[in-house]
């Protein structure tokens, strides 16, 4: 997974209870979810008496030293986090899991997603005397839990969760228990698994595969799960049951080998490609090329339906780290050039259908079309295995303003002209939903395509975001 399209996931989480190799397994699981965040990583462990943690910035291998990992050895319970700084700065103080000490005991906490009432809740807490050390939403939940007057930890977590709105999966660790919660719209993925009789949770099932754990099931929207030495207890903190899984998880974020409800992301993406192919049938082409890696499955689906050979006409360089300038358009363009190159021998003299999973700013698409033409392609037809991405995301994905998104500014024919393709074909929103339904989905968020936000955005909006429609909770 890469960030050259300018759209990034916020985080990945993992937790395991009661395993003698808890910290090592957490490290391996986080490594498998590195695509969900590369700006920081951390692990917090419990030995039933106290919590202890380590964290750092950058990729997991840089974030945690051997000495830090050795210091976590022997703790049987652990939670871990890889972070993309969609919200809040990328400095160390914002790297999760956070570890809090109080007279009620220790609290470790990490999350994936984004609260849509964070500013309001934070302001109310500050007015009440709270002092924040980070800009993260995870710290907000810690304050709410600590201030709750409920008599049990579980009830305190429940009362805290009822006060926050948004897209999230939270892992909350005490000395004696791990509490897991999914927002009541189920926007961000969270899976339950088992290894050697111990329960574990992860943002993606690829983490279970990495440690040899068995997938049990997806955590349900509004569900609250408590895991401790006595076993596992299932509960709910919300009566709302309105699933709105992030469509972009299927399209782009999740690893191709990660499963949703028992179906691999690869299969879902291939089905999106097969559906898209129905709109590409009129194009006469010699080869189908997928943009590596997340679009290869969709390209495979297109090629199968159109009976056109799928070729590897684009190669991705996996070893590009940071460019000298890390932010902004110049950095993005440089990164695209460093990351993608064409196989001239495959492309030369061919009419090409190139399949991408999404277009955000158009930088990557423009480069790809030009690179294919420079390599001798006679025609370049672009197919996108998702609808036009028009609106920003407030649920934990780093596309925050209309100005950043090309389909917000231009029509499809204008985008086609801008990127220099012969034709440009997107997927219809309803076709996308049809594909997800065929894989057992009960509902998806498609707000970045439609502007219909399933969770009301409560925090004050930027002026350019005022036109957003909301369906309400
Ligand atoms: S707005 Fe788009 S990226 Fe954000 S949660 Fe919804 S589908 Fe996912």
TrEMBL record:
Superkingdom of the organism of origin: Bacteria
CDD domains, per the entry: GPATase_N, PRTases_typeI
Lineage, uppermost ranks: Bacteria, Bacillati, Bacillota, Bacilli, Bacillales
Listed name of the protein: Amidophosphoribosyltransferase
Family matches, as NCBIfam families: purF
Keywords for this protein: 4Fe-4S, Glutamine amidotransferase, Glycosyltransferase, Iron, Iron-sulfur, Magnesium, Metal-binding, Purine biosynthesis, Transferase
Binding, [4Fe-4S] cluster: 246, 393, 445, 448
Coiled-coil annotated spans: none
Transmembrane annotation, as ranges: none
GO MF term set: 4 iron, 4 sulfur cluster binding; amidophosphoribosyltransferase activity; magnesium ion binding
Reactions performed catalytically: 5-phospho-beta-D-ribosylamine + L-glutamate + diphosphate = 5-phospho-alpha-D-ribose 1-diphosphate + L-glutamine + H2O
Any one of the GO BP annotations: purine nucleobase biosynthetic process
InterPro entries (alphabetical): GATase_2_dom, Ntn_hydrolases_N, PRTase-like, PRTase_dom, PurF, PurF_N
Catalytic residues (UniProt): 11 (nucleophile)
EC number: 2.4.2.14
Organism field: Aliicoccus persicus
Cofactor binding comment, as recorded: Binds 1 [4Fe-4S] cluster per subunit. Binds 1 Mg(2+) ion per subunit.
Keyword DNA repair appears in the UniProt entry: no
Ranges for domain Glutamine amidotransferase type-2: 11-230
Chain's role: Catalyzes the formation of phosphoribosylamine from phosphoribosylpyrophosphate (PRPP) and glutamine.
Cofactor dependency: [4Fe-4S] cluster; Mg(2+)
Sites where the protein binds Mg(2+): 294, 356-357
Record-stated family: In the C-terminal section; belongs to the purine/pyrimidine phosphoribosyltransferase family.
Pathway assigned in UniProt: Purine metabolism; IMP biosynthesis via de novo pathway; N(1)-(5-phospho-D-ribosyl)glycinamide from 5-phospho-alpha-D-ribose 1-diphosphate: step 1/2
